[in-house]
Design a protein that fits this description.
14 helices
Amino acid sequence: MSKKNISANRSFTYKIVGAISLLFIMFFVAILFGAANTTIKDVWVAMTTNHSSEAVSIIRDIRLPREISAVFVGAALAVSGAVMQGITRNPLADPGLLGLTAGANAMLAITIVFFPTVNYFGTMIACFVGALVGTGMVFSIGAVRKGGLSPFKIVLAGAAVSAFLYAIEQGVGIYFKVSKDVSMWTAGGLIGTTWMQVKTIIPFILLGILIAIMLSRQLTILSLNEEVAIGLGQKLTVIKPALFIVVILLAGTAVALVGNIAFIGLMIPHIARSFVGTDYRYIIPMSAIIGAIFMLFADTIARTINAPYETPIIAVVAISGLPFFLLIIKKGGRAFT
């Protein structure tokens, strides 16, 4: 290994350790603060003993599953966005912009109407199917015209398909009079997260992130140019479908739990690149950690800014994400690269 590679690996190690440290701090802050007053001692007792009290029960049964979910959902959305940007070589790519989130939401509405007794695992599978359908529609439409897929075509097709699928979601909700139930799922938020849901989503998200890390070297090559990737012996017929499955797995799981959370998959990979460069072996793990930190921060703000009432987390994310989105457009995708 060259001195340059050793230096790069050492630098990344320092950065990832710093990011993990910040993640632990943010997690502790998220557990400590909320509508109910709790102390550092309450947090310690809740996490290390079997002692029970009102404050400890709030931490153990409400905040802990919620914030653990925030960690994994933030990581899932950020990694799915990073993978999508690498595959499409499009700085504006995001699961929400490419039909995945809209497809998952539409299938969720259909599931609520026709399978009202389905359990949480079944709901998550429905979201996976919807995300797959949305993605398939986007790439089918984008490939229709001569010249094949391009980043510009994919974004346009994604906007059209997302509008169509959101219309299906709204139409199903209005026609079958389940709009309120659908809105509760799709509005975006972690309120009411249970330990059962945490145990259900974690294996899927960990599997998706693990596969993304395993394919990160191939993704780095693919992000440069498909012709270059083929010339270097990359089996794109295997690698690209595998990466799309990762995106669907991560985005579908996140939507099943928190609904439609936009911008995280768009902006977090750009922030990660500003720290670690353009190598996806570094971008993916850094994106996962920064995504988790951001989701914890957004959820903490949503719970505390107007306590005891809860502000929708999607509003907090949008306030942060929209200016970032406009900055990327202004800089032509090079704002943080």
